[in-house]
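A reminder from the course coordinator: this example appears on the midterm review sheet, so study it carefully.

Given structure:
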């Protein structure tokens, strides 16, 4: 059964916090107030950090999102929607 957009958003937020805790994303993101309306650019991630996030989504959720499908102004909610669209095929 496909996950809801909210469940996918929760997964993405959890991945961001885990990657930050592990040092693969800026440490400030561990406790930062991030939600569906937070833009990817507002996370302070460089291109390597964005690639780390997409890799984590692929490895954790089994959903490959090409880096050309996300942009800095995309919100985390929109990213979760993108993940959901790929998940549904």
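Designed residues:
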């Amino acid at each position: 059964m496909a996950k809801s957009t909210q469940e996918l958003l929760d997964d993405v937020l959890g991945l961001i916090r885990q990657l930050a805790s592990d040092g693969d994303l800026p440490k400030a993101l561990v406790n930062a107030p991030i939600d569906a309306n937070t833009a990817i650019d507002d996370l302070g991630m460089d291109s390597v950090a964005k690639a780390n996030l997409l890799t984590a989504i692929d490895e954790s959720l089994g959903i490959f999102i090409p880096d050309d499908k996300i942009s800095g102004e995309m919100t985390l909610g929109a990213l979760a929607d993108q993940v959901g669209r790929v998940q549904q095929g």
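The two ends are 13 Å apart (CA to CA). Residues 5-88 form a domain with the Non-ribosomal Peptide Synthetase Peptidyl Carrier Protein; Chain A fold (CATH 1.10.1200.10).
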